[in-house]
């Protein structure tokens, strides 16, 4: 059993929360505060319940070295603005000073620790380092879904030191949507997959080929499947090492899941030529052109399936959505997802690029759930156990 935050008595307790503040930093400022905002419900609940809070996170990959560019100071500033209260900060997560600050917290104060990965012991899941981190709190809460697929000191090792441990609201919501909704989805279940590479989503496709009613393929990965079917794909992106795998996936899905591929594409000479694009049907893409977005016929076919679905999981853009001119397929699919959410279809966006896309189109709060963790959501959706979640079991 994993305890939910709501079950703890937090009055005057020091709560150590592992959050995921791994956000982009540009010119010493937070570039995108999505992950910080996602942690607010847990932080605000703890404050209301009369707790003092110690927050810990990693940022980037400093590989055990102190790197001022990867300091959490800008994150502390953004958090202070969002919460409209001062935040205490320590420049080393396990120093004596940092422990003293935590011990002296009173009356609902917040203490943010510097980047955990300034210590190599964090990613090594070192037990001494874990024990040093544990000294900051009396109750441990994990609300960092984005790192839950990694076994590190702050999310796995540290839990050995606590009898009072549990999950924050963000982790609980992620598990509810990504795990529960996927174990017993309201049918029809549609899985939409896109992006450039098949290999990172291989486990996911294999898992759902046979479970989902429909699997809609878009993005660059579609061409590997189309070529495996002997279709002419012009100069489009293809991964020759995945052709056999693509065939195996198609035969696994046969008779159980309808695996559906684009029938037309927006094509151009390259990603830099969005001004001179042409629509071509699959099999008729000229040799010198590459498909960079799904075409209008595909959008309308995929939209019909979305409308007929009751649970939809989406991972990976339908085209090169970052470039104006190749963004339409991804935008239209995002809009259809938002439309059906109003009619109580469960719509779930896996993390990473699809989350960035839905954010770009301003539809973040128009779908049921946008995951904060790319790798972690892929792992969980592929049916794997996440070590940091498992460590919270009592
Ligand atoms: P992935 O990391 O595998 O999810 O791939 C995401 C990337 O795939 C995005 O940056 C898109 O620009 C890219 N992408 C999507 N469709 C295509 C395509 N048809 N050709 C090349 N790249 C694509």
Percent range of helical residues: 25-40%
Say how many strands there are.
Answer: 17
CATH topology assignment of the largest domain:
Rossmann fold
- Classified by CATH, the class of the largest domain is Alpha Beta
Distance between the termini: 6 Å
Radius of gyration: 23 Å
Tell me what portion of residues adopts beta-strand conformation. Answer: 15-25%
CATH architecture name of the largest domain: 3-Layer(aba) Sandwich
Descriptive terms for the model:
394 residues, alpha/beta, Rossmann fold, 2 domains, 6-stranded parallel β-sheet, 13 helices, 33% helix, 16% strand, binds adenosine monophosphate
What do you see in this structure?
This protein is α/β, with parallel strands linked by helices. The protein has 2 domains: 5-172, 3-Layer(aba) Sandwich (Rossmann fold); 184-381, Rossmann fold. It contains 13 helices and 17 strands. A 6-stranded parallel β-sheet has the order 5-6-4-1-7-8, with helices on both faces. It has a 6-stranded parallel β-sheet with strand order 11-10-9-15-16-17, with helices on both faces. α1 (34-48) crosses α2 (73-83) and α7 (221-228) packs across α8. It is elongated and about 70 Å long. The model has no long low-confidence stretch (mean pLDDT 95). It binds adenosine monophosphate (AMP). Adenosine monophosphate binds at residues 195-197, 200, 219-220, 237, 291-292, 316-317, 319-320, 322, 353.
């Amino acid at each position: 059993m994993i305890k939910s935050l709501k079950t703890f008595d937090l009055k005057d307790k020091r709560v150590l929360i592992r959050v995921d503040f791994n956000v982009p930093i540009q010119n010493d400022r937070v570039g995108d505060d999505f992950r910080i905002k996602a942690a607010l419900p847990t932080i605000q609940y703890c404050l209301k319940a009369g707790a003092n809070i110690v927050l810990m996170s990693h940022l980037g990959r400093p590989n055990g070295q102190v790197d001022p560019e990867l300091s959490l100071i800008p994150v502390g500033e953004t958090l202070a603005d969002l919460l409209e209260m001062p935040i205490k900060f320590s420049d080393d997560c396990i120093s004596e000073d940092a422990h003293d600050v935590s011990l002296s917290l009173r009356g609902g104060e917040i203490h943010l620790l510097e980047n955990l990965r300034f210590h190599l012991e964090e990613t090594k899941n070192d037990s001494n380092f874990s024990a040093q981190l544990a000294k900051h709190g009396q109750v441990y809460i994990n609300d960092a879904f984005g790192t839950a697929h990694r076994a590190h000191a702050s999310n796995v090792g540290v839990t050995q030191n606590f009898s009072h441990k549990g999950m924050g609201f963000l982790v609980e919501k992620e598990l509810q949507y990504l795990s529960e909704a996927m174990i017993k989805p309201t049918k029809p279940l549609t899985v939409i997959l896109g992006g450039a590479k098949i290999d990172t989503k291989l486990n996911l496709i294999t898992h759902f080929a046979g479970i989902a009613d429909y699997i809609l393929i878009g993005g660059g990965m579609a061409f590997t499947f189309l070529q495996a079917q002997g279709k002419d794909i012009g100069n489009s992106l293809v991964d020759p090492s995945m052709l056999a795998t693509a065939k195996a996936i198609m035969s696994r899905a046969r008779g159980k899941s309808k695996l559906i591929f684009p029938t037309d594409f927006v094509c151009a000479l390259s990603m830099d030529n969005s001004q001179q694009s042409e629509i071509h049907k699959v099999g008729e893409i000229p040799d010198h052109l590459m498909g960079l977005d799904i075409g209008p016929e595909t959008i309308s076919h995929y939209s019909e399936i979305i409308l007929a679905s009751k649970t939809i999981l989406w991972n990976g853009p339908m085209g090169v959505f970052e470039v104006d001119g190749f963004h339409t397929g991804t935008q239209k699919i995002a809009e259809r997802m938002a439309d059906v959410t109003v009619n109580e279809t469960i719509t779930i966006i896996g993390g990473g690029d699809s989350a960035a896309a839905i954010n770009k189109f301003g539809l973040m709060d128009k779908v049921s759930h946008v995951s904060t963790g790319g790798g972690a959501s892929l792992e969980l959706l592929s049916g794997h156990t996440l070590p940091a979640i498992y460590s919270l079991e009592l």
